[in-house]
Prior knowledge:
CATH class: Alpha Beta
Strand order of the largest sheet: 1-2-3-5-4
Radius of gyration: 18 Å
Largest sheet: 5 strands, mixed
CATH architecture: 2-Layer Sandwich
Oligomer: single chain
Number of strands: 9
Helix content: 25-40%
Distance between the termini: 37 Å
Strand content: 25-35%
Shape: globular
CATH superfamily: GHMP Kinase, N-terminal domain
Amino acid sequence: MTRSDGRMNDELRPVVISREFLKHPEGSVLIKTGDTQVICTATVETDVPSWLNGTGKGWVTAEYGMLPRATNDRTNRYRVSGRNQEIQRLIGRSLRAAVNLFELGENQIRIDCDVIQADGGTRTASITGAYVALCDALQYMVDLDIIQELPLIGQVAAVSVGVVEDESLLDLCYIEDSSASVDMNIVMRDDEYVEVQGTGEDGTFNRAALDELLDLAEKGIFELQQLQKDALSIQL
């Protein structure tokens, strides 16, 4: 098949990660993956949820939403859908996998992912961009002696894969995602899996198809991890 944007089946959309996108947050990133654009911010708070008081353990949490005209039809600015709640839990879980929460101490980092334009892959772009914002927020904490060293235990990125017209594709745009018979979102820390979300939207898939999709996802995530390193100008 010929993809709508002319990419090869195993090719990512063009990715741009712009750090320090906003003035005020301790970490902020604009990530563009094709026509999908997400602003990711990281806010440092020197306290934790009450259930963590006295544990010596920190927390990383996330919120996710779309601007009203991020999509073709306007959505309610103040509506928090079940989908949004699912995605923000995924973002939080994914980023906590990158941090030693005891080394973070009783501090919290709040991640906000705001989709300003959606064309598929908003949750995976949010995770990939938010990781870079998280790194900047953690460096801010080190610079201010809030913590002694970066509590990072790995590098997290995410990508979508799927089956469209019986072909396995990497990094689905909206038109591909909406017609996919199998749709998956994969999150990895370094070379290990954090989360695998896979659904037979219009049919089923066998083990061979799953393995092919995971191979595609690994290829894409390793490329995204290199782009994160390039954006941060360090070797993680």
